[in-house]
Amino acid sequence: MRTVGVEEELLLVDPETGDPRARSAAVLAQAAQEEPDQDVFEKELHEQMLEFATHPQSDMAALRAEIGRCREEAARHAGEIGCTVAALATSPLPVSPSVGENRRYQWMARQYGIATQEQLVLGCHVHVSVADDEEGVAVIDRMRPWLAVLSALSANSPYWQGTDTSYSSYRSRVWQRWPSAGPTEVFGSAARYHRRVADMVATGAVLDEAMVYFDVRLSRRYPTVEVRVADVCLHADTAVLIAVLTRGLVETAAREWRAGREPAGHSVSLLRLAAWRAARSGLTGDLLHPAALRPAPAETVVRALLEHTGDALADSGDLDLARASCEALLRHGNGARVQRELLERTGRLRDVVVECVRRTQG
Fold first, then answer.
1. pLDDT digits (tens, 9 = 90+) for 142-168
2. pTM above 0.90, yes or no
3. Name one GO biological process term (predicted).
4. Is the pLDDT assigned to residue 37 strictly greater than 80?
5. What are the C-alpha distances in Å from 23 to residues 12, 26, 28, 30, 70?
6. In angstroms, rounded to a whole number, what is the distance separating the alpha carbons of residues 58 and 63?
7. Average pLDDT for residues 315-338, to the nearest whole number?
8. How many C-beta neighbours within 10 Å does residue 110 have?
9. pLDDT at 126 over 90
10. Residues 6+ apart with CB under 8 A from 323
């Protein structure tokens, strides 16, 4: 069974006011002091962000437990220096992001200007194991039409600098400001994939291979494909759903490749529109159906994803979990809907953040 690892980026905030706090260096120092051998938490582009990565897991219950434990540990370490964490993909409250001091981040600040300053956005990245680069690229080619559905399910960023953006996932729109971000054309082989990455680095517009921000890419460090389209999810159970569906998509794509089925030939321009539609409406309106990239109700598209991955999900024992979690999201809403309902009830974005802190830890 394919293993899955999840990386989550969390927002550091004041526990009383909800204001973002630029304290990641202090949190990491606290974590290192308590656990000198820990390799779970990492710095990110901005000092208001803290990232953690789970270990590879094949069992989804074990993955859920580890995500919960990492969130609790992040909150505990942050609490030692007077702040806490929130699984919010953008800050609902106004913030002046602080770019980290290391050489890489400062290069990005010089190269991209205000676009770097604005990238205080927090995602959920899912790694799924593959046999080799050939299988990985075959998977990348065949997953493309379905990625926008993952974005809609995970959408958790309706607010930006104190304003309702009218988007469900505004994080994904900000992320597209990187010149290397977004959907890709069909590569057809690992050799073509690696040649494209090398050509992009050779332009000098990106620093290195790590800055090739494809929606799905081969990992540089692990034998995995890395899917990068999801917002960080407010609830840990939603993060597990995204991991389950991602593994299902990878396994389904690999089976199609082995059976000789060609990938859909959807153009990058249409895939960008599908991603925009998912970011705009989330689960509250139409999405573009991956088969023909024409509008269909979100409920129809989500159920099409379950049908598309059904055999793989059944074989891994995840089908009932995926169905139940998708039905719950369609009924109760993703993180974006929850945030808007909280604001309607409380009337203050600060109260939204404080409640989301509570929900981050379950």
1. 999 999 999 999 999 999 999 999 999
2. yes
3. modified amino acid biosynthetic process
4. no
5. 7, 5, 9, 11, 18
6. 8
7. 97
8. 8
9. yes
10. 306
> To the nearest 10°, the Cα dihedral for 59, 228, 298, 286?
180
Residue at token pair 């434990």: 69
Question: HEC string of 169-190?
Answer: EHHHHHHCCCCCCECCCCCCCH
The domains of the chain are located at 4-360
16 CB neighbour count, 10 Å cutoff? 11
Q: Within the chain, where are the H helices?
A: 24-34, 60-80, 103-112, 114-117, 133-143, 147-154, 170-175, 190-202, 236-258, 268-281, 298-308, 310-316, 319-332, 335-346, 349-360
End-to-end CA distance of the chain: 28
Angle at 208 between CA 148 and CA 20, to 5 degrees: 60
Residue owning tokens 């169905």: 323
Q: Which helix (H) or strand (E) holds 228?
A: strand 224-231
Distance CA 35, CA 116 (A): 32
Q: CA torsion angle for 118, 123, 129, 131 (degrees, to 10)? A: -30
Look at residue 260 in the predicted model and tell me its pLDDT.
98
Distance between CA atoms of 216 and 183, rounded to whole angstroms? Answer: 8
Rounded to 5°, the CA angle 114-119-121 comes to 160
Contact predicate 63/1, CB 8 Å: no
Give the separation between CA 78 and CA 87, rounded to whole angstroms. 14
Question: What CATH number is given for 4-360 in this structure?
Answer: 3.30.590.20
